[in-house]
Amino acid sequence: MKHPILIHPDPRLKKTCVPVADLSDKLRILADDMLETMYAAPGIGLAAPQIGIMQRLIVLDCEKEEGSSGKPLVMFNPEILASSEETNVYEEGCLSIPEQFAEVTRPKVVDVRWIDRDGNEQSETFDGLWATCVQHEIDHLDGKLFIDYLKPLKRQMITRKMQKLKRERARG
Description:
This protein has helices at residues 25-40, 128-141, 152-171; strands at 45-47, 57-60, 73-83, 87-94, 97-107, 109-115, 121-127. By secondary structure, it is of the alpha+beta class. The chain has a single domain, classed as Peptide deformylase (Peptide Deformylase, Alpha-Beta Complex).
């Protein structure tokens, strides 16, 4: 089932999420729903707070090759264990900040640990776009948006555009 995606500014997007204490079938279904919502948007990552659920759950799939069946990842309680000194700059966007993009500098490589949908602990080293995406989604769990990395003027400009978009959608 697809969920509506919250649009910035929404106070829930600025809150820190609580860890997932116990993996239930309800949470596994939620993860599947989040993947469906992300693919439909379309996007390459989605965090639970973006659909109003304040738990530490993210989904991502940065496999963009033509004909690829994708590589969906579901992460409960993801945490970055280590980050490289070397950085990458990607033009980031966000499903909660539609049609707005900006260059953000982040560590090029990150080591991440999480619980998979079967309750097993996993860890992996991510590089390039995958590293950027996983950091972007984990930021959501800590109440941080990609525009928080921008200079105040650019951030305010994007926030005003989103306020206008929300007013237009409300009139809809």
